[in-house]
Amino acid sequence: MTADQEEEARLRELMRLLRQADARAGEEDVPLGEYRIPRSRVPERHLTGIGALTKTEVAVMRFLGWGRANADIATLLVISENTVRVHLNNMCRKLELDGVRELNALAGLLFHPLT
């Protein structure tokens, strides 16, 4: 098995586990802006910080979770790329993350589709 195949197998297993956790969570959702995220996807330590995010920060996080670059996010939200960076930094502070890499991982966990 090649390294790429091993990575793909790990990702498929993670997606399977997330689907199972989502199914077990049932009706438990966490409101995140205008979205409802299955409770099983939200790490316990981020529950209070997520509630403090603004509507625009949630939109930035959603696009980040979909794998969009800062320039794409700026274009989609009709804001400057610098404003996107400000939102990213504000989210890192509110969620007590060490940086944008951790935010990127959290955004993927929250918003990446499992299909």
What's the quick description here?
InterPro entries: Sig_transdc_resp-reg_C-effctor (IPR016032), Tscrpt_reg_LuxR_C (IPR000792), WH-like_DNA-bd_sf (IPR036388). It comes from Sphingobium limneticum. The chain is mainly alpha-helical and 115 residues long.
Strand content: 5-15%
H/E topology pattern: HEEHHHHH
Number of structurally distinct domains: 1
Overall mean pLDDT stands at 88
CATH class: Mainly Alpha
Based on CA inertia axes, which overall geometry fits? globular
Going by CATH, the architecture would be Orthogonal Bundle
Describe the biggest sheet? 2 strands, antiparallel
Class per helix and strand makeup:
mainly alpha
Spatial gap, N to C terminus = 24 Å
Adjacency order of strands in the biggest sheet? 1-2
Q: Give the name of the CATH superfamily.
A: Winged helix-like DNA-binding domain superfamily/Winged helix DNA-binding domain
Radius of gyration based on Cα positions: 15 Å
The residue fraction in helices comes out at: 55-70%
Q: CATH topology, which one?
A: Arc Repressor Mutant, subunit A
Distinct helical segment count: 6
Count of beta strands = 2
Unreliable spans are: none
